[in-house]
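Hello,

Our lab assistant flagged a job as stuck in the queue for most of the afternoon. It eventually completed. Since we weren't sure the result was trustworthy after the delay, we are filing this so someone can double-check. Below is the sequence as submitted and the structure that was eventually returned. Let us know if re-running is recommended.
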Amino acid sequence: MIDEVYLVVSLVLLITMSIGLVRVVIGPTPADRMMAAQLLGTAGIGMLLLLAMALGVPALIDVALIFGLLAAVAVAAFTRRRVGRDEA
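-- returned structure --
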């Protein structure tokens, strides 16, 4: 019963990720695109955690943690790039 709930919620997250992908493609500014990419990353991490619980695969938790670290680095790099461009 609980596993089905995890799978349904992960399907809902997958749908929101596909809607967010539209904003990544047609975002009017680079900041909008970066925020949409962060939405994809966050939803992907949540989906991996839910699938780890539903399928009983603890390695997916490790993958989700790595994705979280990569998302933090991506935001830091984007922010650093934007600040450097504004100062020039």
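-- support follow-up --
The delay was a queue issue, not a problem with the job. The result is valid. Residues 59-87 form the longest helix (29 residues). The mean pLDDT is 86.
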